[in-house]
Amino acid sequence: CDCEKLSCSSGWKKRRYIYICPNAQHGCTKKFFRNGDVLYHEKECFFALCYCPAPKCNYMGVYNDLKTHYYTNHKDTMNEFVDVSSSGERIEKVLVIQMDRSGPLVAVQFIKEQEGFYLTVKSIAPSAPGVEECSYDISYSYGGKTMRHGSSEMKKVRKLCFKKPKRDFMLVPNFLIGQHCPTSDIEICIGKPKKDDEEEEADEEDVKV
What we know:
By secondary structure, the chain is mainly β. Helix content is about 10%, strand content about 40%. The strands form 4 sheets. Strands 6, 7, 8, 9, 12 and 13 form a 6-stranded mixed beta sheet that branches. Strands 11-10-14-15 form a 4-stranded antiparallel beta sheet, with no helix packed on it. Strands 1-2-3 form a 3-stranded antiparallel beta sheet.
């Protein structure tokens, strides 16, 4: 942190510490007089580094740079499930959706466990004001049966984690999984958050995969 000297009427001089955001080197200009305010700000700083969701890619950068990086370097694997890892019955895959160079990065995680497979949908972004908000609806169909899960507010994360999810997920049990690859039976619709008085139907800006 920086500090500055302040003169008091008694003649004594005291120091007032100015705390700068740890992301100052990435463009953040916020300054604070209390360390606690910095810690709170870090959780929603727009310039916090985000990590590329592409497997085996070590790139990390600020939100807008990450979107450009992914569109430029991983466009060939966009909109399809890509293998992340496989060990025994556990299989991890990820599908990343991005409609254009400046569009948000949406990651659909597929995690196969003994009991079935889990699906989660997340936006790779900082939890900062001004970042695009998205809604989603994801479904899986097999044998005439359909499971569906959705949310009007997509969770934002700066880095993907492939631990078994504890919330905001859909679990498809084994008896609904066919012999072929189940990812071909998954459909996802991404759109802007809908207000209570809006219709449930997808508008023209929604994206289906």
